[in-house]
Design brief:
single chain; alpha/beta; 9 helices; 2 domains
Length: 244
């Protein structure tokens, strides 16, 4: 997969040189390029914003630098149009299902807006060159798209083949099957008056699997009842229903 990120603060994306994503880039499992939007300006002051038509507070990002930047990163010769992800509080909600969907794409381009946002005509213009997806991390507002891109690139990148050492660890984590993950424990078994649940020390793998499944349901019902409604009936085994 190829990922391109366009931002006026390219240094904000430096954490993507570290850890799992950084190693995936070094190992050639992921190509990730960060571009400074100001490189695509033509005036002496490298201007990327201006006052909003219709008045109002703040500034709006000018369309032309964005069009120049997006044209330059749109990979040629792909089977399908690249996906242009625009982090925005007004976007579709990012979740694990969308992370899996985007991990299948050949190229993702992230446009990090700042100020009051990007001139809407860029989104309209981009429809001919990209599959455009405004995406929100959640119902809160940041100062720009960069932090959202860090989160999405990590969530997507770790799903790519070979990035996570043991793919098994992707199977039993939160949201992989629509449920929250079960609690985990390690040595010592007794710690500051808190003991590991005895079933986990029993060696009875059937009982352990049953306990873990029950804990997933208990936690999900307690912390995220909204996820319970969306559970696919096929996911629920008879034992699951008994655990509810
Ligand atoms: N451009 C911009 C501004 C705020 C914000 N909050 C979440 S994503 C995002 C993107």
């Amino acid at each position: 997969m190829r990922i391109d990120v366009v931002s006026i603060f390219p240094e904000y994306l430096a954490p993507l040189e570290l850890s799992l994503i950084g190693k995936a880039r070094q190992d050639g499992l992921l190509e990730l390029n960060v571009h400074d939007l100001r490189s695509f300006t033509t005036d002496r002051h490298r201007t990327v914003d201006d006052t909003p038509y219709g008045g109002g507070a703040g500034m709006v990002m000018k369309p032309e630098p964005w069009a120049q930047a997006l044209e330059s990163v749109a990979g040629a010769g792909m089977d399908s149009k690249p996906v242009l992800i625009v982090p925005s509080p007004a976007g579709e909600k990012f979740n694990q299902a969308l992370a899996y969907e985007l991990a299948e794409e050949q190229q993702l381009v992230f446009a990090c807006g700042r100020y009051e946002g990007i001139d809407e005509r860029v989104i309209d213009w981009a429809q001919d060159h990209f599959t455009v997806r405004p995406v929100s991390l959640g119902d809160y507002v940041l100062n720009g798209g960069e932090v959202a891109v860090l989160a999405m690139v990590e969530a997507i990148g770790r799903l790519l083949p070979g990035v996570v050492g043991n793919p098994e660890s992707l199977v039993e984590e939160s949201h992989s099957d629509g449920l929250l993950e079960y609690p985990v424990y390690t040595k010592p078994s007794a710690w500051r008056d808190h003991d590991v649940p005895p079933v986990l020390l029993s060696g009875n793998h059937g009982k352990i699997a049953q306990w873990r499944r029950h804990e997933q349901f208990r936690r999900t019902a307690e912390r995220r009842p909204d996820l319970m409604e969306g559970l696919d009936a096929g996911v629920l085994s008879r034992a699951d229903r008994q655990a509810l």
